[in-house]
Amino acid sequence: MEKKNYYITTAIAYTSGKPHIGNSYEIVLADCIARFKRKQGFDVFFQTGTDEHGQKIELKAEEAKVTPKQFVDTVAGEIKSICNCLNISYDKFIRTTDDYHEKQVQKMFKKFYEQGDIYKGAYEGLYCTPCESFWTQAQLVDGKCPDCGREVKPAKEEAYFFKMSKYADRLIEHINTHPEFIQPVSRKNEMMNNFLLPGLQDLCVSRTSFKWGIPVDFDDKHVVYVWLDALSNYITGIGYDADGNSSEQYKKFWPADLHLIGKDIVRFHTIYWPIFLMALGEPLPKQVFGHPWLLAGDGKMSKSRGNVIYADDLAAFFGVDAVRYFMIHEMPYENDGAITWELMTERVNADLANILGNLVNRTISMSNKYFDGIVENKGISEAVDEDLKKVAVETHKKVFEKMEELRAADAITEIFALFKRCNKYIDETEPWVLAKDEAKKDRLATVLYNLTESITIGASLLWPYLPETSEKIVAQLNTSIRDYDRLGEFGLYENNTKVTDKPEILFARMDINDVYAEAARIAAIQKAEAGVTEDGNKDEKEIELVEKDQIEYDDFAKMQFAVGEIIKCEEVPKSKKLLCSQVKIGNKTKQIVSGIKQYYKPEEMVGKKVMVLVNLKPATLAGVVSEGMLLCAEDENGALALVTPEKDMPSGAEIC
């Protein structure tokens, strides 16, 4: 029987720096899906890689005093190393600096131009360099980039634009007739209501203000803008050719079955990318899934705080499969998950060491103690066996159902429910009691057989998520990972098989003090790299101040600054960045909205004395009126800190 094809991709990682644990979650989830599909019998092609062009990389390379290509070679190597560390079974690792990719992007750009989808114009707007995005004044949040919260600068440059509106109606119809196309549904609603239905603006697809990009071959002053370049990897990586000579691999695997991406780039993958494909005359991917984020439990990750968590650091300490388990188990379907060293320790000890590791070790040890390691089904069954068997043979149905919806956390929970049932079965049957009665020896053998068979089924289901651990389990049981079309059968473990006489501890329990010591060691290294001294102060790196146009004293005198006291603060509903504060300024109270949610909790704000621009014209942000501005300082990483008076001053005191 011919295998069905399955093509899965991740978003390609941007090579501006080493990815932290949140960036690594996506590749682990994709690997679990790819492995699962392979076990189901699909012919899988799994592609990941790196996005290597853009102004941000050009600037980073300049800071590092290397060429952009040298810079991305180093970072791409780090990203590939993390993939290998996490046991990622990708079939292709594409780089957007690959020669074939660059040539095809040039062909696509020219094709769009020749068929009238692209035209030359000029762009004038507010530009965010880290996000490489233009914004209008109305799109800014608290005067900053709505995506990252950093400063934007006015910019104007000649550019080519793609006529998005030409294909908008077709895309809306496709989304409405293919409800599975954007998942979860909440992401679909956001795209329709916030972008498509209000009307699409033409998209800037080239730049002239920097050189590190794919040149437009018929107008070499321009380089192709990042999203047209990056998104095209999904087809160039499997041999698409814009001249019509695409490879057999492309014909076999396109359209992709799944683009797995972060929720922050859903717009690019469900609006821009489908429209590019329509213009090329190619089919659209079958599904785009925007997963939530894995965040540090103690706030924004920063080397200066020593709290950046890298997957390879965790893997070196806890083990690769422990990290994979945490990433999959702790991530909800739609909402963000959190990771801390304490949470990792809790999961390792409670789930991996206790539920799974202890189960396997006890079962093998009892087989060795009572039967010299020989496992045999004597057929002496009791009523208590039936529920265990039922759970064992039905678990695969639940796992398959969850994975069909990409609910990997729920799938692994079902597998551990089987392991928990096995532990309960040990308590119910009490093998150590049976062993004291010679007449019940065959019953004891049957109990241990049932446990061994159930563990084998569970280990086989666990393989896509924890491949090394699953293989260790079946090796100790002297069997193999079971074919997925036979997971509904109980009793396939071969009679008279001898298990290992030296069971290996799968997961050792972690001492929290050892964990804290490791976290402190890594934090010290990170702080040293960031220039933070032992007393917690940072060896300050001078920030280059970009001076604005000079103003007259009369202009400055128009602005009124005063000390305010925050008497109430709450999050702005449906906003990721905004806090709404009630600020007492003398005998008046003003409502001020600020984009500082990632740096301060509402309860931390109450009671603070802050510096306020009092007479700023009211503006509406995310549906909430703001009547002033809280003054903040911003470091080179874009982190914000409220400006506060050095000495205690009463609210309403003027700043002059």
What does this entry look like structurally?
There is one protein chain. By secondary structure, this protein is an alpha/beta fold. Among the domains are: 339-498, Isoleucyl-tRNA Synthetase, Domain 1; 553-655, Nucleic acid-binding proteins (OB fold (Dihydrolipoamide Acetyltransferase, E2P), Beta Barrel). The chain contains 21 helices and 27 strands. The strands form eight sheets. Strands 1, 2, 3, 4, 8, 12 and 13 form a seven-stranded parallel beta sheet that branches. Helix 1 links the parallel strand 2 (13-14) and strand 3. The N and C termini lie far apart (81 Å).
Work out the radius of gyration. 29 Å
The fold-level CATH name of the domain at 339-498 is Isoleucyl-tRNA Synthetase, Domain 1
Mean pLDDT: 92
| Spatial separation of the terminal alpha carbons | 81 Å
CATH architecture term of the domain at 339-498:
Orthogonal Bundle
Top CATH class of the domain at 339-498: Mainly Alpha
Q: Strand pairing plus helix content: what structural class?
A: alpha/beta
Strands, total number: 27
Short description:
The chain has 656 residues and is of the alpha/beta class.
List keywords for this structure.
656 residues; alpha/beta; Isoleucyl-tRNA Synthetase, Domain 1; OB fold (Dihydrolipoamide Acetyltransferase, E2P); 7-stranded parallel beta sheet; 6-stranded antiparallel beta sheet
Walk me through the topology.
Elements: E1 5-10, E2 13-14, H1 21-39, E3 43-51, H2 55-64, H3 68-85, E4 92-95, H4 99-114, E5 118-128, E6 133-135, E7 153-162, H5 165-177, E8 182-183, H6 185-196, E9 203-204, E10 206-207, E11 223-224, H7 226-231, H8 233-236, H9 248-253, E12 258-262, H10 266-280, E13 288-291, E14 294-296, H11 311-318, H12 320-329, E15 337-339, H13 341-371, E16 374-375, H14 383-404, H15 408-429, H16 431-434, H17 441-462, H18 467-476, E17 497-498, H19 512-529, H20 553-557, E18 561-571, E19 579-585, E20 588-594, H21 602-605, E21 609-613, E22 619-621, E23 624-626, E24 629-630, E25 632-634, E26 640-642, E27 654-655
Parallel strand pairs: 1-3, 1-12, 2-3, 3-4, 8-13, 12-13, 14-15
Antiparallel strand pairs: 5-6, 5-7, 7-9, 10-11, 16-17, 18-19, 18-21, 18-27, 19-20, 21-24, 22-23, 25-26
